[in-house]
């Protein structure tokens, strides 16, 4: 007879926070109540709460309890917090917009570095992820080689970060993986949109393979432009510096 697994208290509470059951400024249930609810000791409850404190989601106030912090205080690049966000967050336009704006600022530069530094192994990883995305599109359940189309899409972008051969940028891709996955899952919709997106990904892959940094930078922006259109964030491209503005973009009005 299988032994029942103990509940992950921190994950349960994080799910409640992201779902809006505990809003910023409100207090989580008391430690003694959590002990009763989960049938565990006080030290176990405190250990779970400490995970939320370490993630900036909760602050412990002596004599009052554990209060949920404002979103601006959350450590969204903490691997566990970003994983919770990707799995539990209700559609949140602010979170999605901020993640997307960060990607627009960073990924074109990553593509440029990848075009300059990618090894044969890096190119193989990028091409494999792209071919797996194409394979997933031909499958009724959009899965290929045991993974979903969205997972292969995330792997494609991870491979580009790794191809920069910069330790910090490569590590950043691991921390951002759940956040990028959240946008990919939200933005990949109709077959027509996916076909357009795959062609943009192919052009990015080719620019990196052909060692064309400027073309890779522009191709990365083109990939993000498709995502921006799908998410309703196209206006973020209105204020790009002139050298990054995509062909056909309208010059924003002064002021």
From TrEMBL:
One Pfam family recorded for the sequence: FCD
CDD domains: WHTH_GntR (cd07377)
Domain of life: Bacteria
PROSITE patterns: HTH_GNTR
UniProt xrefs under Gene3D superfamilies: GntR ligand-binding domain-like (1.20.120.530), Winged helix-like DNA-binding domain superfamily/Winged helix DNA-binding domain (1.10.10.10)
Domain HTH gntR-type stretches: 3-71
SUPFAM superfamilies: GntR ligand-binding domain-like, Winged helix' DNA-binding domain
InterPro entries, sorted: GntR_C, TF_FadR/GntR_C, Tscrpt_reg_HTH_GntR, WH-like_DNA-bd_sf, WH_DNA-bd_sf
Coiled-coil region: none
Keyword Lipid metabolism part of the UniProt annotation: no
Alphabetized UniProt keyword annotations: DNA-binding, Transcription, Transcription regulation
Name of the molecule in the record: FadR family transcriptional regulator
The species this protein was found in: Halomonas marinisediminis
């Amino acid at each position: 007879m299988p032994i029942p697994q103990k509940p992950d208290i921190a994950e349960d509470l994080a799910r409640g926070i992201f779902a809006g059951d505990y809003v910023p400024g409100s207090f989580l249930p008391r430690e003694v109540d959590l002990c009763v609810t989960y049938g565990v000791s006080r030290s176990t409850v405190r250990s779970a709460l400490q995970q939320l404190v370490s993630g900036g989601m909760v602050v412990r106030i002596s004599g009052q309890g554990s209060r949920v912090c404002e979103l601006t205080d959350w450590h969204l690049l903490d691997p566990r917090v970003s994983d919770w966000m990707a799995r539990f967050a209700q559609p949140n336009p602010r979170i999605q917009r901020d993640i997307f704006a960060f990607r627009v600022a960073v990924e074109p530069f990553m593509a440029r570095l990848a075009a300059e530094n990618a090894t044969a192994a890096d190119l193989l990883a990028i091409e494999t992820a792209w071919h797996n995305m194409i394979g997933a599109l031909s499958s009724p359940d959009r899965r290929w080689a045991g993974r979903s189309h969205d997972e292969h899409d995330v792997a494609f972008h991870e491979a580009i970060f790794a191809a920069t051969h910069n330790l910090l940028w490569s590590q950043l891709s691991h921390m951002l993986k759940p956040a990028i996955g959240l946008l990919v899952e939200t933005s990949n919709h109709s077959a027509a949109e996916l076909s357009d997106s795959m062609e943009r990904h192919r052009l990015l892959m080719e620019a990196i393979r052909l060692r064309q940094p400027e073309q890779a930078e522009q191709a990365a922006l083109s990939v993000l432009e498709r995502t921006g259109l799908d998410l309703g964030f196209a206006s973020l491209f209105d204020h790009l510096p002139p050298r990054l503005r995509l062909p056909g973009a309208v010059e924003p009005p002064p002021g």
